[in-house]
Amino acid sequence: MARGERWRRAAPTDGARTAQRAARGGPGRRDGRGGGDRGATGGVALAVVVLSLALGLSGRWILAWHRARRAVTLHSAPPALPPDSSSPAVAPDLFWGTYRPHVYFGMKTRSSKPLLTGLMWAQQGTTPGTPKLRHTCEQGDGVGPYGWEFHDGLSFGRQHIQDGALRLTTEFVKRPGGQHGGDWSWRVTVEPQASGTSALPLVSLFFYVVTDGKEVLLPEVGTKGQLKFISGHTSELGDFRFTLMPPTNPGDTASKYGSYNVFWSSNPGLPLLTEMVKSRLNSWFQHRPPGASPERYLGLPGSLKWEDRGPSGQGQFLVQQVTLKVPFSLEFVFESGSAQAEGNQALEQLAGSLLTQALESHAEAFRERFEKTFKLKEKGLTTGEQALGQAALSGLLGGIGYFYGQGLVLPDMGVEGSEQKVDPALFPPVPLFTAVPSRSFFPRGFLWDEGFHQLVVQRWDPGLTREALGHWLGLLNADGWIGREQVLGDEARARVPPEFLVQRAAHANPPTLLLPVAHMLESGDPADLAFLQKAFPRLYAWFSWLHQSQEGPVPLSYRWRGRDPALPTLLNPKTLPSGLDDYPRASHPSVTERHLDLRCWVALGARVLTRLAEHLGEAEVAAELGPLAASLEAEESLDELHWAPELGFFADFGNHTKAVQLKPRPPQGLVRVVGRPQPRLQHVDALGYVSLFPLLLRLLDPSSPRLGPLLDILADSRHLWSPFGLRSLAASSPFYGQRNSEHDPPYWRGAVWLNVNYLALGALHHYGHLEGPHQARAAKLHSELRANVVGNVWRQYQTTGFLWEQYNDRDGRGMGCRPFHGWTSLVLLAMAEDY
Questions:
Q1: Please, where are the H alpha helices in 634-706?
Q2: Which has the higher per-residue pLDDT, 420 or 389?
Q3: What subcellular locations does the record give (predicted)?
Q4: What is the distance between the alpha carbons of residues 283 and 298, in angstroms, rounded to a whole number?
């Protein structure tokens, strides 16, 4: 029994009895003298106690209210981008784009009330009942491979989509002019996948336009369900016109017979567009080409009637269905009224041979610019590998989206665990221009992914990177926090499980946006430096929040807030804020933890911000952060906190035991069992990516005594080396390949990830070019690792047509979601040896 427990059970002393009587309201003195004074004194004391309690409670309430308010208040620093930076007046070349990455093909404006266009398609008669309607990119819909062959991020793209026996090619090109973003045209070509196919299917394409408010759409009716054109007007676009051109055979101007249907409705909400079209495909029609046998198909209602007219401001949804025999091509043309009125002569419509010429010209310009930028042919890479590089870049650029909306934020109440006692609040409406990790599975913005994305985008178009970074920095709240996952707008929200909608203002994410910032600083581009001058207050606020909010238990240590609690179903509680999710940490989460990767990220941030402050003449900030950067890069401090001599590598520190495992225990299923030795404060014996972070972020001196052992571990096939890249967790680890729960397969427990392999390649290249005892070995390992990583990604791309989220360390097979043109596109920079 504890000492305090024995004390509570002992008999009370006289003094204690007196205190107890006083607490019960009985007399504090036995002689009864001075009763009036005692009553007055007691009343005053009670008033003081009550007042103190009231002030304490009100103070805590005010503090809680203040914290909650700051969590959903935008930062007061000047924006990094000019006002209305997304408008056609400021950035006309970026106003229209393929900014709907979750659909197979569609375009929209960069606006809070956008005009949206898109494509759906269906093969008629291939399955009983309603045909499979293709619209949004899905993991399990059987479509694929698909992806952009070319996309310049601005004005041109060509995509190929395989859907069973069909091959679709979607192309677009923009033409500048006027004051509203110019004109653009699409071409959609549908052909059989295999040549010589005798049974050519009947296919329906659905071209649609959606407005999101009071914008005007006026369809002009032709014959037999065919629209001559759709005219319209919005405040941002002025007057405009859409025209669906007559279908032709691919590659020539010979017309082709098509059957037309149309549907016009109020906008049901963007996530419901597919279901609305499906529900209206309930009438049979005849496709009757001259001289051919008629075929039945399911079509939309035949008459042009605005159905389900909703309340004013709900917007409109207008669909033109065209049904044809494969093969065929269709062109969809958007013309801006101000572009047409700009010159003395009317512009020729961007269609037919003029569109063909524009597409071919842009494709050739893309190839030339690609080789000039990345020099893959010059480096001796094969034609196929060059095509992989082009697809990696194009898939990333074609996955850039524009989002607008309000996220849900759970305020940081200052005490861990207390956040569950408050309700999430809506963040102010904000725009976000960002690349996405995966069009099919993660079609939204992720903070730590975006830093890696922009390393690739930056080499191609620094202006796009400035736009993306400026938008991300626009998400800062009053404390300097940015949510790690951005779910903005109805379309994004519809694809996210409810438990992931809320972002917690106490949780950080690796500050990878500083990687492209560092590259900007090194490049010396005047436009980049001008941007960094404007962005500096926000970058400094963001880093300051990270450094202060994630401080660890001892000086110069750091700890990721937001680890999962030690639930009985989890082998090792996850650390989602780190980005490494189920990578093994201390077995028993506690405030005593010291996380190596976070310390290294903060060290990188301090270094970059110090150099930036010095360059910009921000002497006060440089004087503040310079000593911090020096302290964090000092190897004595790093060794003291994170070098584990008993393990022979850098490691996390915390309350840990390796004697944990999942065991079946009916009826609960798999349950965590903790054996002996019991957990104690020690270094965490999880050898993997985290162990390499001082190397990955180039924090070690070339002559460091720790560099050699890290290279030994990296190069050892018993640990991290594989023929396909570096494993995320050593094959020798007891956690290697282990599930984290009955329903949670391994994620960062052995698989090869391109983002960390790219950091490793950059570090090996760095140390291979610096004089030191490990220079030759680092250079050799760089060459071998690059060959392994690039070779495997290329082989898997040849086999499957996809870039993958991760790769199996045993056989190189692509795993996780696909296509994953997020940080896996870093394979392009690895091929170019650009770090």
A1: 635-642, 693-696
A2: 389
A3: Endoplasmic reticulum membrane
A4: 6
Is residue 220 within 8 Å of 231, Cβ to Cβ? yes
How high is the pLDDT of residue 313? 63
Q: Is 640 a catalytic residue?
A: no
In sequence order, which residues have a C-beta less than 8 Å from that of residue 723 and are 6 or more positions away? 788, 792, 812
How many angstroms separate the CA atoms of 740 and 454, rounded? Answer: 32
> Which among 99, 91, 141 has a CA at the least distance from the CA of 121?
141
Q: Cα(187)–Cα(184) distance, rounded to whole angstroms? A: 10
Question: Which residue from 575, 781, 745 is spatially nearest to 670, judged by alpha carbons?
Answer: 745
CB atoms within 10 A of CB 447: 23
Give counts: helices (H), strands (E), the chain.
Answer: 20, 32
Cis omega before residue 677 (within 30°)?
A: yes
Contact, 301 vs 309, CB < 8 A?
A: no
Q: What is the pLDDT of residues 382-408, one digit of tens each?
A: 999 999 999 999 999 999 999 999 999
Which of 581, 635, 639, 833 is flagged as catalytic?
Answer: 581
Bond from prior residue into 82 cis (ω within 30 degrees of 0): no
Q: In this structure, are residues 492 and 555 in contact, taking their beta carbons and an 8 Å threshold?
A: no
Of 407, 406, 425, whose CA–CA distance to 68 is shortest? 425
Q: DSSP state, 825?
A: G
- Closest residue by Cα to residue 482 from 528, 456, 521, 513: 513
Instruction: Give the residue among 599, 489, 601, 479 at the shortest CA–CA distance from 551.
Output: 599
Pull the structure tokens for residue 405: 């909306």
**CB distance 457 to 374 below 8 Å:** no
Angle formed by the axes of helices 526-549 and 462-473, to 10°?
Answer: 30
CB neighbours of residue 508 within 10 Å = 27
Active-site annotation holds for 805: yes
Residue 791 amino acid letter: G
Average pLDDT, stretch 451-467?
98
Q: Which structure tokens are listed for 250?
A: 């691919």
Q: What are phi and psi of 655, to 5 degrees?
A: -80, 105
Distance between CA atoms of residues 725 and 781, nearest Å = 11
* Structure token digits, residue 784: 């071998």
Residue 513 to residue 465: CA distance in whole angstroms: 10
Sign of CA dihedral 403, 405, 406, 407: negative
Place of tokens 């008669």: 125
| Tens-digit pLDDT profile for residues 728-766 | 999 999 999 999 999 999 999 999 999 999 999 999 999
| pLDDT tens digits, one per residue of 234-265 | 989 999 999 999 999 998 888 999 999 999 99
Longest dimension (CA), the chain: 122
- Which domains does the chain carry? 95-374 (2.70.98.110), 412-435+444-559+594-633 (1.50.10.10), 563-592+638-834 (1.50.10.10)
How many angstroms separate the Cα of 750 from the Cα of each of 584, 684, 728, 818, 827? 11, 17, 5, 19, 19
Q: What is the SS3 assignment for 65-122?
A: HHHHHHHCCECCCCCCCCCCCCCCCCCHHHCEECCCCCECCEEEECCCCCCEEEEEEE
- Residue 821 in contact with residue 803, Cβ under 8 Å? yes
How many residues in the chain?
Answer: 835
Residue 12 has pLDDT above 70, yes or no: no
Would you give the end-to-end CA distance of the chain in angstroms? Answer: 61
Asked if 349 contacts 333 with a C-beta cutoff of 8 angstroms, the reply is: yes
Amino acid at 634: A
Catalytic residue chosen out of the listed positions 183, 479, 805, 809: 805
- The pairing of strands 183-192 and 166-175 is antiparallel
pLDDT for 21-48, tens place per residue? 333 333 333 344 344 455 566 667 776 6
Q: Do the bridges between strand 156-163 and strand 146-151 make them parallel or antiparallel, or are there none, so unpaired?
A: antiparallel
pLDDT at 41: 67
Element (H, E) at 30: none
Tell which residue, 507, 519, 406, 394, has the closest CA to residue 452. Answer: 519
